[in-house]
Design goal:
alpha+beta; binds 2-acetamido-2-deoxy-beta-D-glucopyranose; 424 residues; elongated; 18 helices
Amino acid sequence: MAALHRSLVLLCLTLLALNTVVSAHNITQMLSGFPEYSVFSDCLTKTKLDDEINSRQTITVLVLTNGVMSALTDKHPLSVIKNVLSLLVVLDYYDGQKLHQLSKGTTLSTTLYQATGKAPGNLGFVNITDSKGGKVVLGSAAPGSKLDSSYTKSVKQIPYNISVLEISQPIIAPGILSAPAPSASDANITAVLEKAGCKTFASLIASSGVIKTYESAADKGLTIFAPNDEAFKAPGVPDLSKLTNAELVSLLLYHSLASYSPKGTLKTTTAPLSTLATNGAGKYDIKVSTSGDDVTLHTGVGPSRLADTLLDSTPLAIFSVDSLLLPTELFGKSPSPAPAPEPVTSPSPAPVLAPAPISEAPSPLGASPPAPPSETPGGAPSDAPTAESANSKSANAAGHVGAPALLTALLTVSATVVSAIILS
Ligand SMILES: *[C@@H]1O[C@H](CO)[C@@H](O)[C@H](O)[C@H]1NC(C)=O
Ligand SMILES: *[C@@H]1O[C@H](CO)[C@@H](O)[C@H](O)[C@H]1NC(C)=O
Ligand SMILES: *[C@@H]1O[C@H](CO)[C@@H](O)[C@H](O)[C@H]1NC(C)=O
Ligand SMILES: *[C@@H]1O[C@H](CO)[C@@H](O)[C@H](O)[C@H]1NC(C)=O
């Protein structure tokens, strides 16, 4: 009984979670009325931290005035600025009042620098302390750090979602300013891929010459989605040796975007993304869906999960992905040995927005709730994300259809559990 009760509660929580809209705020817009923070705002845009901020909820952005920012930007490359600003994005909501109500007058708070996994130890935490004189001071949580920044004023809030506060000085974690700035042209793409278990992909881009295209694009903005070695051995993967050289090059170029798109940017993306293989409107593009912190890419043939960030150094981002990205332009119609997903027949790969299959499974009381059979091997896990992201952010028509359908499906499941409780 208790277990059933717990699963009911879980279901309700799931319902709430799925109903959560990902992005309701726009930090650039919030700061646009404050010219004194224009340098800060510009840097957020250049480093794409704006997307990261917009994709999160319950967040506090500690802003610096133009004078303080310029002193930083004059001396440091963008990759260092990105780290410094990441440490000013606190993953909790603090307004002026809450700063003065800290329990015991002091707290350590997680920042984006910690969350992006770049910070060793506790370097990604900030110490916020309400000092005796009523002044709130801040500093790195690393042992021995000075609390030498202070809260100067409240700038803007959207209560309990996002708060913008001005502080006097950047919070400098030990080593953050002297971290070597790996420039994109210095990054050895092959070495990054090999080290991360993407050897097959690395050797294909080398033998096909695609590496040259990547290298020359890397300085202007490049994102690479590298399938790991297991992805090439997965059942249903087409025999790449049957492709012509031109097709292989298209396939490999399809695994990249001609822009710097770190994870936060992918999470806030709603429009289809052009790839380096794109050769006409709507051709060779990729759609993105998000669930919490998980990002899934959809080609129209099948989903592929973003696995790890192998490199995120403005303007080059490299991710590993779980499956090969198979464009419909090459693999849509001629299902060679592919036993896997339904070959896409319609040119507009609408099925990427998954809500429809869910709504088609309305009333199977007692039947297994997961995965409508028509879906791709990703099955249930890939459904929820897509529906949720459709529900998120943009007022996208499919989202409006999708959310109620999803609710219906979940309510049906809850009803099943309730009747199970009554019957038992
Ligand atoms: C806060 O965020 C939630 C979820 O994104 C949204 O529904 C709500 O409208 C936001 N609150 C305000 C005041 O904008
Ligand atoms: C946020 O606001 C800025 C300035 O108003 C605008 O240029 C930008 O497109 C907005 N971003 C999103 C994701 O809506
Ligand atoms: C924050 O730093 C101050 C001064 O070093 C220290 O006394 C306090 O314990 C720290 N707060 C936390 C929560 O560790
Ligand atoms: C890049 O790394 C690969 C593999 O580790 C190595 O063979 C190659 O020489 C490196 N290239 C440069 C330019 O350092």
